[in-house]
Each structure stands twice: as structure tokens, then as C-alpha cells.
Amino acid sequence: MNEISLNHYLFVSCALFFIGVYGFLTRRNLITMLMAIELILNSININFIVFNKFLFPDKLDGLFFTIFIITIAAAEAAVAIAIIINLYRNYKTIDVEETNTMKF
Predict the structure, then answer these.
(1) Domain extent listing, the chain
(2) Bridge partner residues of 29 (DSSP)
(3) For 21-54, how does the pLDDT look when each residue is reduced to its tens digit (9 = 90+)?
(4) What is the mean predicted confidence (pLDDT) over 86-104?
(5) How far apart are CA 88 and CA 83, in angstroms?
(6) pTM, full prediction
(7) Largest pairwise CA distance in the chain
(8) Which fold has domain 6-91?
């Protein structure tokens, strides 16, 4: 059986990152943009775990960074959903183009 190499993990991580960037830049729905940011953060987590496994297998630095990022991502998702709910209550839409809050 073939062992999964570093290149395979990095390809998956790179694909997730660019799917997240594409989703963030092309979508106008706030929920979809939030999911795209979560994809980007998950690709970063994969990188931390993989580089920790292949470069420093006896240390847990990558794991600690990953747990920290997961914690920050959970807090970010909670705050973002609260902001999205507040915007929906005020504007009755979650489309970025229609909720121009900088109107004077």
C-alpha cells in the first residue's frame, strides 16, 4: 500500500484554501462568506497538523496551534452569526450588495 505523502496533504489543504478564497470573493450571501472563511481556517489547520507530523513528530506545537485556531473559529462563527441575525432584522436580507450600511 502507498503511504500518503506530504504532497497529498498539501494538495488537499491548498484546494480547500483556494475554494474558500473563491467562495469568499464571489458570493454575496453572508452565510456563504462565513462558510468560506471556515474553509480557509480548516486548510490552515491541516497545514499545521501535517507539518507537525512530518517535520517534528515528537512535538505537539502544531496540535496546540490547531486547537487555538479551532477555538478562535468557534468564537468568530458565534459573533458573525449574531451580526448576520442583527443585519437581517434591520435590512430583511443577508445579501452584501443590498445591505449597504455606509449610506449617508
Answers:
(1) 6-91
(2) 95
(3) 999 999 988 899 999 999 999 999 999 999 999 9
(4) 78
(5) 9
(6) 0.84
(7) 64
(8) Helix Hairpins (1.10.287)
